[in-house]
Amino acid sequence: MLEEFRKFALRGNAVDLAIGVIIGAAFGKIVDSIVGDLFMPIVGAVTGGLDFSNYFVPLSSQVTAASLAEAKKQGAVLAWGQFLTIVINFVVIAGVLFLVVKGINRLKLLEDLKLISGPKEPELPADVKLLAEIRDILKSKPDGAREPRAP
Protein backbone atom coordinates (compact mmCIF):
# COMPACT_ATOMS: atom_id res chain seq x y z
CA MET A 1 0.00 0.00 0.00
CA LEU A 2 2.87 2.35 0.76
CA GLU A 3 4.39 1.59 -2.63
CA GLU A 4 1.07 2.34 -4.33
CA PHE A 5 0.81 5.67 -2.49
CA ARG A 6 4.38 6.57 -3.50
CA LYS A 7 3.53 5.88 -7.15
CA PHE A 8 0.40 8.05 -6.88
CA ALA A 9 2.21 10.90 -5.12
CA LEU A 10 5.09 10.95 -7.59
CA ARG A 11 2.90 10.65 -10.68
CA GLY A 12 3.03 13.75 -12.87
CA ASN A 13 -0.54 14.90 -12.20
CA ALA A 14 -0.23 14.97 -8.41
CA VAL A 15 3.13 16.76 -8.49
CA ASP A 16 1.88 19.25 -11.09
CA LEU A 17 -1.19 19.96 -8.97
CA ALA A 18 0.92 20.53 -5.85
CA ILE A 19 3.21 22.91 -7.73
CA GLY A 20 0.17 24.74 -9.14
CA VAL A 21 -1.33 25.18 -5.65
CA ILE A 22 1.93 26.53 -4.23
CA ILE A 23 2.47 28.94 -7.13
CA GLY A 24 -1.20 29.94 -6.95
CA ALA A 25 -0.87 30.81 -3.26
CA ALA A 26 2.27 32.87 -3.92
CA PHE A 27 0.56 34.58 -6.87
CA GLY A 28 -2.42 35.35 -4.62
CA LYS A 29 -0.13 37.15 -2.17
CA ILE A 30 1.36 39.18 -5.02
CA VAL A 31 -2.07 40.18 -6.28
CA ASP A 32 -3.21 41.06 -2.73
CA SER A 33 -0.18 43.31 -2.44
CA ILE A 34 -0.85 44.90 -5.85
CA VAL A 35 -4.43 45.65 -4.83
CA GLY A 36 -3.76 46.67 -1.22
CA ASP A 37 -0.45 48.48 -1.64
CA LEU A 38 -0.61 49.91 -5.15
CA PHE A 39 -4.12 50.00 -6.57
CA MET A 40 -6.27 50.96 -3.55
CA PRO A 41 -4.01 53.86 -2.47
CA ILE A 42 -4.33 55.29 -6.00
CA VAL A 43 -8.12 54.89 -5.82
CA GLY A 44 -8.03 56.54 -2.39
CA ALA A 45 -5.93 59.44 -3.70
CA VAL A 46 -8.24 59.96 -6.68
CA THR A 47 -11.32 59.88 -4.46
CA GLY A 48 -9.85 62.19 -1.81
CA GLY A 49 -8.45 59.69 0.68
CA LEU A 50 -11.38 57.32 0.45
CA ASP A 51 -10.76 53.99 2.20
CA PHE A 52 -13.48 51.52 1.31
CA SER A 53 -12.55 48.96 3.95
CA ASN A 54 -14.13 50.92 6.84
CA TYR A 55 -17.48 51.64 5.19
CA PHE A 56 -20.38 49.79 6.72
CA VAL A 57 -24.05 50.10 7.56
CA PRO A 58 -25.01 49.25 11.16
CA LEU A 59 -27.85 46.71 11.33
CA SER A 60 -28.40 47.27 15.01
CA SER A 61 -29.03 50.40 17.07
CA GLN A 62 -26.32 49.23 19.49
CA VAL A 63 -23.58 49.81 16.88
CA THR A 64 -22.04 53.25 17.45
CA ALA A 65 -18.38 52.68 16.53
CA ALA A 66 -16.67 54.53 13.71
CA SER A 67 -14.36 51.71 12.58
CA LEU A 68 -15.50 48.41 11.12
CA ALA A 69 -13.53 46.28 13.57
CA GLU A 70 -15.09 47.99 16.57
CA ALA A 71 -18.56 47.97 14.96
CA LYS A 72 -18.37 44.19 14.42
CA LYS A 73 -17.69 43.77 18.14
CA GLN A 74 -20.80 45.82 18.99
CA GLY A 75 -23.26 44.02 16.74
CA ALA A 76 -24.34 43.15 13.23
CA VAL A 77 -23.04 45.34 10.40
CA LEU A 78 -23.26 45.29 6.63
CA ALA A 79 -19.61 45.71 5.60
CA TRP A 80 -20.19 46.91 2.04
CA GLY A 81 -16.81 48.67 1.86
CA GLN A 82 -14.94 45.45 2.52
CA PHE A 83 -17.10 43.72 -0.09
CA LEU A 84 -16.28 46.45 -2.61
CA THR A 85 -12.57 46.02 -1.88
CA ILE A 86 -12.86 42.27 -2.49
CA VAL A 87 -14.73 42.88 -5.77
CA ILE A 88 -11.97 45.26 -6.91
CA ASN A 89 -9.41 42.63 -5.88
CA PHE A 90 -11.25 40.04 -8.00
CA VAL A 91 -11.37 42.34 -11.02
CA VAL A 92 -7.62 42.99 -10.75
CA ILE A 93 -6.89 39.24 -10.39
CA ALA A 94 -9.10 38.40 -13.35
CA GLY A 95 -7.42 41.11 -15.45
CA VAL A 96 -3.91 39.93 -14.57
CA LEU A 97 -4.80 36.30 -15.26
CA PHE A 98 -6.38 37.30 -18.56
CA LEU A 99 -3.15 39.05 -19.60
CA VAL A 100 -1.02 36.07 -18.48
CA VAL A 101 -3.16 33.56 -20.39
CA LYS A 102 -3.25 35.84 -23.43
CA GLY A 103 0.57 36.07 -23.37
CA ILE A 104 0.96 32.31 -23.02
CA ASN A 105 -1.47 31.70 -25.90
CA ARG A 106 0.48 34.15 -28.04
CA LEU A 107 3.76 32.34 -27.28
CA LYS A 108 2.12 29.02 -28.18
CA LEU A 109 0.89 30.49 -31.45
CA LEU A 110 4.35 31.82 -32.27
CA GLU A 111 5.86 28.42 -31.45
CA ASP A 112 3.30 26.74 -33.70
CA LEU A 113 4.29 29.08 -36.51
CA LYS A 114 7.96 28.21 -35.86
CA LEU A 115 8.89 31.86 -35.44
CA ILE A 116 10.55 31.25 -32.09
CA SER A 117 12.49 28.10 -33.02
CA GLY A 118 14.57 29.91 -35.62
CA PRO A 119 14.72 29.94 -39.40
CA LYS A 120 13.78 26.72 -41.15
CA GLU A 121 16.01 25.31 -43.88
CA PRO A 122 14.43 25.89 -47.28
CA GLU A 123 13.07 22.83 -49.08
CA LEU A 124 15.24 21.71 -52.00
CA PRO A 125 13.57 21.62 -55.42
CA ALA A 126 12.86 18.17 -56.88
CA ASP A 127 15.46 18.50 -59.66
CA VAL A 128 18.20 19.38 -57.16
CA LYS A 129 17.26 16.35 -55.03
CA LEU A 130 17.39 14.12 -58.12
CA LEU A 131 20.80 15.44 -59.13
CA ALA A 132 22.10 14.85 -55.59
CA GLU A 133 20.86 11.24 -55.71
CA ILE A 134 22.58 10.69 -59.07
CA ARG A 135 25.78 12.18 -57.69
CA ASP A 136 25.65 9.90 -54.64
CA ILE A 137 25.06 6.81 -56.83
CA LEU A 138 27.98 7.71 -59.07
CA LYS A 139 30.25 8.26 -56.07
CA SER A 140 29.36 4.86 -54.63
CA LYS A 141 30.38 2.95 -57.81
CA PRO A 142 34.05 2.13 -58.43
CA ASP A 143 35.67 4.04 -61.32
CA GLY A 144 35.87 1.03 -63.66
CA ALA A 145 32.24 0.03 -63.09
CA ARG A 146 30.67 3.02 -64.77
CA GLU A 147 28.37 2.21 -67.65
CA PRO A 148 29.48 3.37 -71.08
CA ARG A 149 27.71 6.32 -72.63
CA ALA A 150 25.43 5.89 -75.57
CA PRO A 151 26.54 7.74 -78.74
Helical proportion, percent range:
55-70%
Straight-line distance between termini = 83 Å
Give the helix/strand class.
Answer: mainly alpha
Number of strands: 2
- Which sequence of SSEs, written as H and E, runs from N to C? HHEHEHH
Number of helices: 5
Give the neighbour order of strands across the main sheet: 1-2
Question: What proportion strand?
Answer: under 5%
Radius of gyration using CA atoms only: 34 Å
Q: Using the alpha-carbon principal axes, give the shape.
A: elongated
> Major β-sheet, in short?
2 strands, antiparallel
Q: Which blocks of ≥5 consecutive residues have pLDDT under 50?
A: none
Rounded mean pLDDT is 81
Description of the structure:
This protein is 66% helix and 3% strand. It has five helices and two strands. The protein has a two-stranded antiparallel ribbon with strand order 1-2. By secondary structure, the chain is mainly α.
Characteristics:
151 residues; mainly alpha; two-stranded antiparallel ribbon; 5 helices; 3% strand
How would you sum up this structure in a few lines?
With 151 residues, the protein is mainly alpha-helical. The chain has helices at 2-10, 12-46, 68-74, 80-112, 126-140; strands spanning 57-58, 77-78.
